[in-house]
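WP5 quarterly update. Target: Adenosylcobinamide kinase. Source organism: Anaerospora hongkongensis. Length: 193 aa.
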Amino acid sequence: MSGKIILVTGGARSGKSVFAEQYAENNAGPIAYIATAQIYDEEMKERVAIHQSRRPAHWLTFEAPYEADKAVAQAGQQAETVLFDCLTLYTTNLMLAPDAPAERESRHEYVMNEIIKLLAAAKSINKTVIFVTNEIGMGIVPDNAMAREYRDLAGIANQKVAALADEVYLVVSGIAVEIKARALHQEVAKSHG
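Structure tokens (predicted):
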């Protein structure tokens, strides 16, 4: 099986995780789920429980609030499909990590380096890797610097994954719309080259 990268993006409660889970189920072989959420309050605990209740018991689960590249590499040794849920929570974790630099520019570089390591790991395992992320930059401009930085970093991280992805889906109101297919992208590039 040849590896491929899939990006599933959308707003909160858009159905993106359900779509990604169904996509994973349609692939042959074992599935690994990489969870990035950290539980800090009751509401997040409820969200995690909903995700867990949907996952089949036979899926392998890896908790990776940090160093997700290592989790992807490990998952790739045991599964044919790796579902990473989600990139935006992982970006939050990196921004607020104990070893994240305090200065904005250094923190930006730190987060992007971790995202690049994650993508390198995803490519190197030569499996299907599905990234779930939130499309958070389509709303109002946040009212504080940290929230704006987060919005910007999440947007840049999404762009990096989308650039590498073979397929990108936008999920709106439970409906997935394919917005990038590698084959189509390559044909267009050839015709303009």
